[in-house]
Write a structure and sequence with these properties.
Helices cover 53% and strands 20% of the residues. It is an alpha+beta fold. A hairpin with a 3-residue loop joins strand 7 and strand 8 (220-230).
Length: 265
């Protein structure tokens, strides 16, 4: 009886020692990994890397280091790696189904890094989100909206969505539409619009601006205005142009279409 008791005590002592050692290794490894990642992010050479590549690389390196740490802890606990691999292989189908979404997002993150449909800092519209790209990680991409809301979108969704990158090109075109009464002289309105366009400091002469009659109905005429600008000046020009044209219409007595009220009897 005493022999059995001694055997059990020895097993508990041995297992307890392994567990304590494994916990110590895990906590020390966690501290080392966080310190290494922080040091990597502060490294001057790494800081020169493109933001998109840098954030994705940090996320990937961090994940790989934790995988190595977990494998080391399992080894300390005395669990044979062959047994672990066998169990994982046996549960492969179930794990694959459970992680299908995560694997899709991981694949999406890798594809984003390869094809680069957008970069960190770009103003993008994709998968129902519109904002500035803040971060691209292994599984998710973070957007900051114009009203300062953070939106996190799975990378898998982004790779299957139409993506509009408003920051990709050096120039953008402001497209606007204005209406006036049918009684107005079209040539006069066009001349007025072009005069306002030429006064816009942020509008470009090349490509040439456009202001022409483009449509209408029985009560109104519709004019289309198109002005090119530098990408960073888009919204300034948009609002300056809107205000200047409205003020010019008012100053020159341009009549707006009459509104007809129909009463059903």
């Amino acid at each position: 009886m005493q022999t059995w008791i001694n055997t059990i005590v020895n097993m508990i002592t041995s297992a307890g020692g392994k567990i304590i050692l494994a916990l110590i290794v895990f906590f020390i490894g966690d501290i080392i990994i966080k310190g290494f990642v922080n040091a990597l992010q502060r490294n001057a050479a790494f800081a020169k890397v493109e933001d998109t590549v840098r954030t994705f690389s940090v996320s990937l390196i961090k994940g790989l280091l934790y995988v190595i740490l977990v494998v080391a802890v399992i080894g300390i606990l005395g669990v044979p790696m062959a047994s672990v691999i066998t169990v994982l292989a046996s549960a492969g189908v179930a794990v694959g189904l459970a992680l299908q979404g995560a694997l899709s997002n991981l694949a999406g993150g890798i594809m984003l890094m390869i094809f680069k449909p957008f970069r960190v800092g770009d103003f993008v519209e994709a998968s129902g989100a519109t904002g500035v790209v803040q971060e691209i990680t292994l599984f998710y991409t973070t957007f900051l909206t114009l009203d300062n809301r953070k939106i996190t979108v799975p990378n898998g969704n982004l790779m299957n969505a139409n993506i509009v990158d408003y920051s990709s090109e050096e120039l953008r075109r402001v497209d606007q539409t204005y209406t006036c009464a049918k009684s107005e002289n079209p040539a006069k309105i066009q001349e007025l619009l072009m005069a306002v366009i030429k006064k816009q400091e942020k509008g470009l002469d090349t490509p040439e601006a456009f202001a022409r009659l483009s449509g209408g109905d029985n009560e109104s005429m519709e004019f289309t205005v198109r002005v090119w600008c530098k990408n960073e000046d888009y919204w300034d020009l948009y609002f300056d142009l809107t205000q200047s044209i409205v003020e010019a219409f008012a100053a020159n007595g341009v009549q707006q279409p009459a509104k007809r009220l129909t009463i059903d009897k």
